[in-house]
Amino acid sequence: MKGIFIALEGPDGSGKSTIIKHITKYLEEKNIDVLVTREPGGTKIGESIRKILLDSKNKNMTPETEALLLAAARGQHMYQKILPAVKSGKVVICERFILSSLAYQGIGRDLGIEEVRMINDFAIRGMRPDLTLFFHVDPVTTLKRKTGEKGGDRLEREGIDFHKKVYNGYVKLLEIYHKDIKIIDATKSKKEVLEQSIRHIENILKREGYR
Ligand code: TMP
Prior knowledge:
CATH topology: Rossmann fold
Helix content: 55-70%
Number of strands: 5
Distance between the termini: 9 Å
Structural class: alpha/beta
Bound molecules: thymidine-5'-phosphate
Largest sheet: 5 strands, parallel
Number of domains: 1
Number of helices: 8
């Protein structure tokens, strides 16, 4: 039996990590084998790349280096962890995937959606999630939540203009890829956000004939 690959996307601090825990609990209670993972990271190599990417000391990293490191981590993640889990019948839930690169690097860093899509397609041979949930909330609210006291990592420390640009990028991408992405209103209560997410996940499980 083939598994399902689900990606959760959205601006920094949109509540993805919290909801993933609840989704996992929900699915496990239904005896579904779940694998939770994240990007950048998910593998030993990927987590090392993540450290380089998020290190606030790496101020002089070029946008191109950033995009290539992300794509490299993604390729490793896809082949070493995601694909084998899907092939073994698991439901894989991944915090962030290619849409993050299209929004942050393609639009936020001005590298171009098409250029970033191409390097990612090289890394993951054009593979895509079965379902992408987008946690929709504006960046001003989320960044206050995230950067708060600690000051945030290298990307969170980018100014509000960068995060607004990324957000507008996401909005543009939602128009382009509207067939593949389900929008979650992440301004609602945790309970409602979870309910919206579960509804879409149940639909994809049914559509793919999972169980
Ligand atoms: P996280 O805080 O959600 O774990 O993600 C780390 C940061 O990396 C976050 O600010 C978003 C950024 N990022 C990109 O810029 N491009 C990507 O492709 C991914 C996966 C994350």
